[in-house]
């Protein structure tokens, strides 16, 4: 019976010694040194970010932006997906090539506009009312969703408005600009 217990204990020790990648310390003198391998496993899927739900809004002389009803404007919803639901940077840029956010007609006539980014409740204004730049970057620290199926009707809004009323003297033309949103993880 006594030898059976020793045999079971020896098998248990051998099993645990085989499972360890560590180097056990020796029992000699006044010190003993051992070591082990520490492994950190990254996530099964890498972090990804994405902008979804962008649409092509149209400004008219009667449209009004949700957060600024005094000037012609529109509000359009979009979604920022971050698989980690973390903080991201949003860069908004204009393609007008003029040093300002402007819509441009085929004959070169330009109308300046402003863009403001807010969260769905309009409680957090991420800015963007700039008049002398071709882009702006803002940190987005809350409100992202971790899956595109959670976007619903958008988790952010872009409020776009002209800097002045559309006077009746402006020729009836189509003015356009390509606005680019770039989202990067922080």
- Cα(first) to Cα(last) distance is 64 Å
Radius of gyration: 30 Å
Poorly predicted runs of 5 or more residues: 1-18
Kindly name the structural category: mainly beta
- What form results from the Cα inertia axes? elongated
Helical content stands at under 10%
Order of helices and strands: HEEEEEEEEE
**Beta strands, count:** 9
Note the beta-strand portion.
Answer: 25-35%
Our count of helices gives: 1
> How many strands, what sense, and barrel or not for the largest sheet?
6 strands, antiparallel
**Mean pLDDT rating:** 77
SSE layout:
Blueprint: H1 2-19, E1 49-52, E2 64-65, E3 68-82, E4 88-94, E5 102-104, E6 110-118, E7 135-140, E8 156-162, E9 179-185
Antiparallel strand pairs: 1-3, 2-3, 3-8, 4-7, 4-9, 5-6, 6-8
Characterization of the model:
With 186 residues, the protein is mainly β. 10% of the residues lie in helices and 32% in strands. It has 1 helix and 9 strands; from the N terminus they run H-E-E-E-E-E-E-E-E-E. The strands form 2 sheets. Strands 1, 2, 3, 5, 6 and 8 form a 6-stranded antiparallel beta sheet that branches. Strand 2 (64-65) and strand 3 form a beta hairpin. The model is unreliable at 1-18 (pLDDT under 50).
């Amino acid at each position: 019976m006594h030898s059976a217990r020793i045999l079971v204990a020896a098998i248990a020790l051998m099993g645990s010694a085989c499972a360890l990648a560590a180097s056990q310390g020796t029992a000699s003198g006044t010190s003993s040194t051992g070591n082990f391998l520490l492994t950190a496993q990254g996530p099964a899927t890498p972090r990804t970010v994405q902008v979804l739900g962008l649409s092509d809004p149209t400004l008219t002389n009667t449209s009004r932006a949700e957060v600024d009803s005094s000037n012609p404007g529109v509000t359009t919803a979009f979604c920022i997906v971050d698989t980690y639901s973390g903080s991201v940077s949003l860069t908004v840029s204009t393609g007008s090539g003029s040093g300002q956010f402007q819509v441009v007609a085929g004959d070169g006539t330009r109308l300046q506009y402003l863009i403001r980014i807010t969260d769905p409740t309009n409680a957090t204004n991420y800015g963007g009312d700039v008049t002398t730049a071709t882009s702006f970057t803002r940190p987005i620290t809350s409100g992202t969703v971790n899956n595109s199926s959670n976007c619903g009707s958008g988790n952010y809004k872009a409020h776009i408005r002209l800097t002045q009323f559309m006077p009746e003297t402006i020729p009836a033309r189509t003015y356009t600009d390509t606005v680019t949103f770039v989202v990067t993880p922080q």
